[in-house]
Amino acid sequence: MSSAPFSRLLRSAAFATALLGVLPAVHAADAAPTADAKSGKPDLDLPPLSEDKTIHQTIRLNGKPFNYDATVGSIKVRDAKGKVIGEVVYTAYVVPGSSPKRPVTFAFNGGPGASSVYLNMGAIGPRRVQFGAAGDAPSDSSELQDNPHTWLDMTDLVFIDPIGTGFSRALEEPAKAKADFFATEPDIKYLSRIVYDWLVKNGRLRSPKFLMGESYGGYRAPRLAHELQTQLGVGIKGLIMVSPYLDPAAIGDDTALSPLPWMINLPSMAASHLEAQQKLTPEAMHGIEAYTRGQFATDLLAGRSDPNAVTRLVSKVSELTGIDAAIVSRLDGRLDSNTFLRELHRGDKKIGSVYDANVTAYDPFPASAERRSGDPILNALIAPSTSAMVDFVTREVGWKSDALYKALSYEVNSAWDRGASQDKPVSDLRQAMANDPKMGVLIVHGYNDLSCPYFTSALILDQMPAPMAAPAHLAVYPGGHMFYSRDGSAQAFKRDAQALFTK
């Protein structure tokens, strides 16, 4: 979950986003905190975090017992003067007695303001709680079950919660924390150092290293890879981007001249309509993608120069999406995602999720001219995922904290400074791939995701220089942003990922 989904959802729900912050000089180190040079005290007088805790656990995987160590621990973040300004809490799953050359994967979610619980207990961790599918509710059980799709048999796993999420925290006053943590540039600097420090702390610098980022974590991942390669001396064997938020400019303003905002949404809308009819196939989507690149883009750019362009747009968009032609006509063929999600299910007085258009909830205000409710998936997953994670950390592992666990932090998201470098993920991805042609790249999406539509990644890869694009693979699965909540898609995802780990 991430910036694209989280931020676009906040905007659609009429939340304001404040963009504040400046670039600090920060780094992390595993050492005791130092006092402020003037006062002799830290900025904030907070209770100390629990010591790192490790427990031994067993799950059944492929019909056999599978043993591993689960650790909840923390790594400190220092500024340029050595003062501790934050503490990052992580959850690691490591197979004991393995070779130091066993792969290790570092996983990040996004938001900004999301903890890593979604990849941990929804996708690839050894145990999971169900969320992200139709019918989920906040009151569903938060009891963890063995995850048959865990990646722990391929790689050790380290799930990192950025500052302000999970139990990770700033040790500064709020205004300073905004500048030091809640902006795109310092975010990459301190998180790359967290990866480095974990490797040193655990003697794993010889291990093949992989980075995974979901949504805004997909914005982070290529930037972290480039930073680690060129600034910290850590090579990355493989890069996995899950429903990534790669190109903020492509989302853009729906009134802008560029046809991209309309182009990237249309295939996912069409996929949702096809799935509802049980007609979704890769072959069907190839034809829709070809139309989107061709006649659709041409008619969008034609405007009034071609009197028939809008007529063609209205007819085809209505056919592909299932939205009434009268509604599409009022929009001149430019169907936005909010209108699509409401109108697709209006007859049932329901609203679709931006994370998966075919996951719905009752619209509490069906007579309202505008949507006034939250997202069906987001509203349903917060309770079971938060309860499951806190119970695991505090009761099972025994890592105690009096703090509130933040699965999603609206405060972090609203404070985030996105800066002017909106093209940095794609630029850093190109540079990281050029630096290391042996680094594998896997980009994965769900067809029905309107928060980070898959067609953005398809267009980006198509613009890559041919020799560089060779190690990159794009896979699209049934489902939405969290396609891994569907067993078939989770299985396919793991099969595709195995190629990176056996390369």
TrEMBL record:
Classification via PROSITE patterns: CARBOXYPEPT_SER_SER
Region feature Disordered, mapped onto this chain: 32-51
Protein name, as recorded: Peptidase S10
Keyword Hydrolase: yes
A matching Pfam family: Peptidase_S10
Gene Ontology biological-process annotations: proteolysis
Coiled-coil stretches: none
Molecular function as annotated in GO: serine-type carboxypeptidase activity
Domain of life, per lineage: Bacteria
Entry keyword set: Carboxypeptidase, Glycoprotein, Hydrolase, Protease, Signal
InterPro entries per the UniProt record, alphabetical: AB_hydrolase_fold, Peptidase_S10, Ser_caboxypep_ser_AS
